[in-house]
Amino acid sequence: MIDFLNWLNGILWGLPLIVLMLATGLYFTVRSGFFQFRYFGWIMKRTIGQMFRKTETNEDGGNGDGRKAGGEEKGMLSAFEAISTAIGGTVGFGNIAGVATAVAAGGPGAVLWMWLTSLLGMILKQVEVTLGCYYRRENEKGDYYGGPTYYMERGLGIERKWGRLWLIPAIIFGIGIFSTFFVTSSTLTAAQVVSGAFQLDMLNFGSFQVEGVIVIGALLCVLTYVITGGGTRRIASIFSKLVPFMSALYILMGLAMILVNIGQVPAAVGAIFTNAFTGTAAVGGFAGCAVSQMVRVGMARSVYSNEAGWGTSPMIHASAKTRHPVEQGLWGSFEVFFDTFIICSITALSVILSGCWTDGTNGGTLALNAFASGFGSFGSILLAMIMVIFTVTTSGGWFTYYLAILEHLYKQEGMVKDIVMKLFYAVRALPGLLWTIYLVKTDNQGFIWTVVDITSAIPTFINVAVIILLSGQYFKLLKDYKARYLGIGKVDPDMALFYEDQEVR
User: Fold this and answer.
1) Pair 213, 192: CB distance under 8 Å
2) Distance between CA 29 and CA 34 in Å, rounded?
3) If 0-12 CB within 10 Å is exposed, 13-18 middle and 19+ buried, where does residue 74 land?
4) Position 208 pLDDT exceeds 50
5) Are the CB atoms for 136 and 498 separated by under 8 Å?
6) For burial by CB atoms within 10 Å, which of 60, 232, 267, 372 has the most?
7) Is the pTM of this model over 0.90?
8) Which residues make Cβ contacts (< 8 Å) with residue 477, sequence separation at least 6?
């Protein structure tokens, strides 16, 4: 079974997906006029820059939709709540354990391929978030949901007249996304870090002994139930306060690790660039890595970490109040930049600087060893605390993605939808705990990252192919956005900024 999964992973993350991702990223980059590079300052101004303003300002002098002053932005979350939830879903154990595993499996050179993939990922996520906002739908309760299945139905099924054939990619995509609900390693990774930091190998409960990893996993399961109990609105409200704190704490910890090893930084950065094109020789517990494997590992970890092209973030960004779909798409670009070039880079440099990546360990244990080498037990305990927050935010972020798909599957309120939703809420945190118990008891943890790669590759294939087919709508919206807010071109007063506006007309 493990051999088959490794073979399937090699096929999915082989040449076809690599070519598709690179070609699609280059296509949108070139046709958009290298938007993520030329307008990087504008992206930062309209995203992170807005966080430091007391009130939202719109350069058009009106409500921001370019039509008339006093209009109301539609949506159920603020842009900051949406990005906090999205970052909460993307910035998680993949940024720590996943990146550590990438370095352990592909060597320092894998980091460069992770960066390069993310440069193209900035425009990919902008496109999918823009389409997610444009094609979103309002349910009976007045809540907005959207994402890939929504733009497959409206963009392919209705606009491109596919009829019910849009269901084929939507079903495959949905199965791929929901497979991450049943197969997850986030709880295990966090439990390993916490139990390792506090040296909780075995815990005694009377005459019973239970592995510390399993006990911590159970506590994380309970915490996830508490956080996700109020649905998307409550999760977004909590994450808007928790995610900035979580991110700042980890950044400060990583910067301290870099400062402690400042003399080794030039060599570490040099290894990232040189090994990316030469491969990495065997050293210590590291078996060596060819360039082809390095590219595959770097790209896979990039997609799994920042989720560009995966189709996940549009499912929460589509719920945001926004003046224009492209405006929310800017948050998608910022999300990739922050996730990979800030958070992932800190993890990668910390692991490389520690030298622990050559000892044969990977995942959360490798990250724990890396920070312990710089700060001792204090570093281990602090990373454990951060991992707990990361795990809960990852689970909460993905919970909102599953809700968006279920809302689309069961559009109308009724008994069936009520039963499915209640069942989903009841079991929402159990898979992580069950996988933790199974993997600890069987001591068969090596293949979990293979499964994780497979579950990210399938929906990515589908989503990237779909956004290529719907690229015309994105470029129409981008042209309109440039005219309204960047003074490039002429505004079309009849342009429908959202699909529902087109339906009304």
Assistant:
1) yes
2) 5
3) middle
4) yes
5) yes
6) 232
7) no
8) 130, 134, 324, 325, 326, 497
